[in-house]
Amino acid sequence: MFPSLRYGLHPVLPTRLGFRRVLGLTNPPLARVLTETDAFTLVPARPRVTLARAAQKVLDESVPGDFVEFGVHHGGTAGVLASMLKGSDRRLHLFDRWGDLPEPTEEDGIQHQRYARANIPEKLKDLVDRPPLASTKELIERQLKFDNVRYYQGWYEDTLPTYEGRPIAFANVDCDYYHSVKLVLDFIGDHASPGCVIYIDDYGEWPGARKATDEFCRAHGLEPEIVLNQAIVAV
Fold first, then answer.
1. Is 70 within the bounds of a domain?
2. Which of 140-148's residues contact partners 24+ apart within 8 Å by CB, and which partners?
3. Which CATH number belongs to the domain containing residue 185 in this structure?
4. Which of 46, 3, 52, 49 is nearest to 26 (CA)?
5. Residue 184 lies in a domain
6. What range defines the domain where residue 87 resides?
7. Which of 30, 60, 175, 206 has the CA that lies 20 to 30 A from 44?
8. pLDDT at 228
9. Cα–Cα–Cα angle for 11, 4, 222, nearest 5°?
10. Domain membership flag for residue 6
């Protein structure tokens, strides 16, 4: 659990003085976690702080349940969540294929062709050459010393039915593609604890993620909070 994040999240001040410098002065524990997770993620520091703020709200309000992440890759954002859960009885559940990517569809808009499997051979090869599940465990278990974690490796269609956790208090959704985001949002909706918060990464960059999120919110009468390119949904 981190101290107040309000100063480190100021929309102008960090840009002018240096985001890391300001955060290091106002919230040293979180600044340290950013440094520890830098090498394990493609997510910049600023969205990781926004993620931490959204998760902290759940902890501050004592929303019951576990934390879940969909789309883990090498584990950087999962490491932020693991750091926040140390010392609590909440389990962190991590879902990812770890080693492959799905085929995008027309709902993914401009990313449909860009991320077609035939067009990303180097990215797919990198998933084989640098096994992301191994680096996730290296960060969370060995570097961060967090062991209350459950890994669900495989396609969501196969792993979601095997969920072994309590109601979901917080969910980080970073799986980009329309069908993936739609699938996990429906799952979260079915398992959400009252007061659950959902953080959707790439809302502003992946048309499919935005479409699936907007559909979910309309169906449930919810209004997403947009922060930079991310959406935060309180259920």
1. yes
2. 140/75, 140/78, 140/79, 140/82, 140/92, 143/36, 143/79, 144/36, 144/79, 144/82, 144/83, 144/86, 145/86, 146/82, 146/83, 146/85, 146/86, 146/92, 148/85, 148/89, 148/90, 148/91, 148/92
3. 3.40.50.150
4. 3
5. yes
6. 40-234
7. 60
8. 84
9. 65
10. no
Does residue 151 sit within a domain?
yes
Amino acid at 18: G
pLDDT digits (tens, 9 = 90+) for 166-176: 999 999 999 99
28-41: pLDDT as tens digits: 999 999 999 999 99
Total domains in the fold of the chain = 1
Residue 6 DSSP class: T
Q: Is the pTM of this model over 0.85?
A: yes
Q: Comparing C-alpha atoms, which of 103, 68, 101, 83 is closest to residue 31?
A: 83
CA 229 to chain centre: 13
